[in-house]
Amino acid sequence: MTATTRVEPIFEPLDTTKTLYEQLGGEPGVHALVERFYDLMDLEPDFQALRAVHGPSLEQARQKLFWFLCGYFGGPNHYIERFGHPRLRARHLPFSIGEIERDQWVACMGRAMQDQGVPPALLDRILHAFYGTADWMRNRAG
Fold first, then answer.
1. 3-state secondary structure of 105
2. What is the pLDDT of residues 66-88, one digit of tens each?
3. What is the pTM of this model?
4. Is the pLDDT of residue 48 over 60?
5. Helices 26-43 and 99-115, interaxial angle, to 10°?
6. Which of 3, 64, 77, 112 would disulfide-bridge 71, Cβ 3.0–4.6 Å?
7. What is the pLDDT of residues 20-33, one digit of tens each?
8. What is the residue range of 90's domain?
9. Is 4 among the domain residues?
10. In a domain, 33, yes or no
11. Does 13 reside within a domain?
12. Residue 21: enclosing H or E segment and its boundaries?
């Protein structure tokens, strides 16, 4: 008797002829997404715990996330050119990140993508990947 494994896609199909970077509008699109993300974090009480992790200024975080996401989405590797390998978990260890911060990060990015008009199928796929990364960044219980 042999077992058959069947993998069902859980997402709508995406356009694979373009990178995520291209689908998001290149540098201007990624920049607008990052700006909206940090604007929401700064303005919305729903993201208060996440905002508190970032300290008084968001300027460095805005720039670094923009550089990182350009490469992550298949565009220029601005972050790697400046800092080397992202080493995401190691670079985030100084910050207290638990489930609340993870969930607020993902929710804030989801709202930013919605506000930027990211198509739902693309938004779902990106948020799924971001959730896994955000969960991996947790360095404390709760």
1. helix
2. 999 999 999 999 999 999 999 99
3. 0.89
4. yes
5. 130
6. 77
7. 999 999 999 999 99
8. 20-136
9. no
10. yes
11. no
12. helix 20-23
